[in-house]
TrEMBL record:
<comment type="similarity">
    <text>Belongs to the PHP hydrolase family. HisK subfamily.</text>
</comment>
<dbReference type="GO" id="GO:0005737">
    <property type="term" value="C:cytoplasm"/>
</dbReference>
<dbReference type="InterPro" id="IPR016195">
    <property type="entry name" value="Pol/histidinol_Pase-like"/>
</dbReference>
<comment type="pathway">
    <text>Amino-acid biosynthesis; L-histidine biosynthesis; L-histidine from 5-phospho-alpha-D-ribose 1-diphosphate: step 8/9.</text>
</comment>
<dbReference type="GO" id="GO:0000105">
    <property type="term" value="P:L-histidine biosynthetic process"/>
</dbReference>
<dbReference type="GO" id="GO:0004401">
    <property type="term" value="F:histidinol-phosphatase activity"/>
</dbReference>
<dbReference type="InterPro" id="IPR010140">
    <property type="entry name" value="Histidinol_P_phosphatase_HisJ"/>
</dbReference>
<keyword id="KW-0028">Amino-acid biosynthesis</keyword>
<keyword id="KW-0378">Hydrolase</keyword>
<keyword id="KW-0368">Histidine biosynthesis</keyword>
<feature type="domain" description="PHP">
    <location>
        <begin position="5"/>
        <end position="219"/>
    </location>
</feature>
<dbReference type="InterPro" id="IPR004013">
    <property type="entry name" value="PHP_dom"/>
</dbReference>
<dbReference type="Pfam" id="PF02811">
    <property type="entry name" value="PHP"/>
</dbReference>
<protein>
    <recommendedName>
        <fullName>Histidinol-phosphatase</fullName>
        <ecNumber>3.1.3.15</ecNumber>
    </recommendedName>
</protein>
Length: 309
């Protein structure tokens, strides 16, 4: 009966695969109790489109229309499958430029979204999860903004600025789910968290704990070749000590990714000592921001189907 609160489909995300219905049907087949549909929020500026969107000659208005079409189908599927799975309809946020948080809040209010996945994918308006060349551009930009210091590396500058951007997002949006907390390590998995970065991590965790956000344990990190899920275990252990709640996410980019690496996720949960996970109560069960807790999560029969992964 576990959950995933972070997903995409090729129908509404150009770097994913399959249809939204196929993603939902796969989640039902695997026995998920709740599944979050969280396509990316639309972008308002041409320079913020991803390369695959540029190749398709998309415009910012196309991303708006795409997201609205997603909402329409997601709500329809939510109703159609209500007796088989709790579908939550939301949005994965961006934090790119000065108006992005305002745009996120407006979309949430206008469309009465069930929840937000609060994620940072850009630093200094440059994507940090698309490919290595873009990541390196972001590093160099962070280094230049810091004054090209002789005592710290471009990577360190980028890590610091990433956690500062995340802080702004957490304070400005208070997302129900915090997406891939340490995504910045994707292309620099060996970079240790400096004392300065750790202080920023602790500051961000304090914000999450204060407003009651849920941090996703995201299994997609293993598809990227990382040793741990997001967040890495040292951060998870600190979060646990601060009373932070956790949820599960496969961050699927198509039906074949639903439940991706959940066998490793089960092992990881045991290693870091997470025994209960949470998810926002579906609209039919709550008129507020209440959470549903799944206790003894690692002992559920659900996990047996992933033994061969």
């Amino acid at each position: 009966m576990p959950v995933s609160l972070h997903s995409h489909s090729g129908q509404y995300c150009k770097h994913a695969k399959g249809t939204l219905r196929e993603v939902v049907e796969r989640a039902v087949q695997l026995g998920f109790t709740a599944y979050g549909l969280s396509e990316h929020m639309p972008r308002s500026r041409p320079q913020d489109l991803y390369p695959e969107e540029v190749e398709l000659n998309m415009t910012p208005s196309d991303t708006t229309n795409q997201y609205l079409a997603f909402l329409n189908e997601a709500r329809s599927l939510q109703l159609e499958f209500k007796d088989r799975i709790n579908l939550l309809v939301g949005m994965e946020t961006e934090w790119i430029h000065g108006s992005t948080l305002t745009e996120s809040n407006a979309l949430t209010a206008t469309h009465k979204l069930d929840y937000l996945v609060g994620s940072v994918h850009h630093v200094h308006e440059i994507p940090i999860d698309f490919d290595v060349p873009m990541y390196e551009r972001a590093e160099q930009r962070a280094f230049e903004i810091a004054g090209s210091p002789a005592t710290i590396s471009p990577t360190e500058c980028l890590f610091r600025d990433y956690y500062d951007a995340q802080y702004d997002l957490l304070v400005g949006l208070k997302p129900a789910v915090v997406g891939h907390f340490d995504l910045i390590s994707m292309y620099r998995p060996g970079h240790p968290l400096s004392e300065v970065c750790w202080e920023k991590v602790k500051r961000n965790v304090a914000v999450i704990a204060e407003y009651g956000g849920i941090v996703e344990v995201n299994s997609r990190a293993w598809k990227k070749g990382l040793v741990d899920a997001y967040p890495q275990r040292a951060i998870v252990e600190y979060m646990k000590a601060q009373g932070v709640k956790f949820c599960l996410s496969d961050d699927s980019h198509g039906p074949n990714d639903v439940g991706m690496h959940y066998s490793r996720l089960l092992k990881y949960l045991g290693e870091v000592g997470i025994t209960e996970v949470y998810y926002p109560a579906p609209p039919s069960q709550s008129g507020s921001n209440s959470l549903i807790c799944i206790e003894n999560v690692t002992s559920l029969p659900f996990w047996k189907q992933f033994a061969s992964q």
